Amino acid sequence: MFVAVVPPEPIKEELSEFLAPRDGMPWIDPEQWHLTLAFLAQVAQHRVDDLVEALERTAAKHESFELSLAGAGAFPDEFTAKVLWLAPAADMSRLAAGVRNACNSAGATPDGQRFVGHLTIARLKRSLDARKWLQVLDTFRSAPWLVEEVELVHSHLREGQSGRPRYETVASVALGSA
Question: Domains, the chain, ranges and CATH?
Fold first, then answer.
């Protein structure tokens, strides 16, 4: 499972149009695009309701905010890239910290990775020097959109197209509803 901000359809369409003429990269299906706030390797079924309640309490403390995508990066780095991503043009670290604390309080421990806000757009089978790709991707600027909720998503491994995961939204939690 994971907790994420999911871009609305017009943003997905805008990014899809930008990527369409750029062959040679295994672009991720737009239906899988999201900005992960917390990754939860395992969540016991009996913890899901508690997790949703904890996320609701936390989300209520965070106001809706405007977000756009601007800037590109790679994991682990641009010289040996295995993942290409776009960056949010707003600081999401406070929201991510709140979400991760909520997950912990509900007994759904997030991974220990440092939060780096990003939207993964390509996963590579072999690492490559991605500097030229990043120069191209860095020119993309999405229209802004209002983030009004976060989603708790269950990832069904290898059930999607080409063996990718299939995502199922378990709960959508409104921001600033306190």
Answer: 2-174 (3.90.1140.10)
